[in-house]
Amino acid sequence: MNDNIEMPKTNKEENIIEESKEMVKKDVKTFKIFFKDVKEYLTSRNTNELGELVWRLVLIALVVIALYVPFQLFRDLGINILISVGINFSDKTLNMYNSIFNIMYSIFGIVLFFVLCKDRFYKIVKNQEEIKQKQN
After folding, report:
1. Rounded to 5 degrees, what angle do the CA atoms 37, 40, 45 make?
2. Residue 2, SS3?
3. Would you say the C-alpha torsion 110, 114, 119, 123 has a positive or negative sign?
4. For a Cys-Cys bond, which of 81, 84, 86, 89 suits 94, CB 3.0-4.6 Å?
5. pLDDT at residue 3, as a whole number
6. Is 135's pLDDT higher than 70?
7. How far, in Å, CA of 21 to CA of 121, rounded?
8. pLDDT tens figures, 10-30
């Protein structure tokens, strides 16, 4: 038998790939704009406002770090279920399983941190702009 037979891609698969590429491009563009806005904010604010921003970033980082516990519990639950079914792990497969979960948490944590920072940053900037407009 010939195992090298490839199925042609359907239009649906190609559309999904194109949509994914467009979403990634859009996200990269919004993060570039976000970093530009943060740079502008950091260079134009006084120390009190920067201190508040740093404090909020530390709180967001603590929330993301606290989410490590559910990932660990889920990882342990998966191991226990597989062992109870009768699947035994060697050291290599257990290390690979743990690595996969750590990589998933790292990606999740970084994305969550940036999303929360972006949302909080723009809310802070919007509130400060509204306060300045009311004072004028």
Report:
1. 120
2. coil
3. positive
4. 89
5. 54
6. yes
7. 26
8. 666 677 777 777 777 777 777
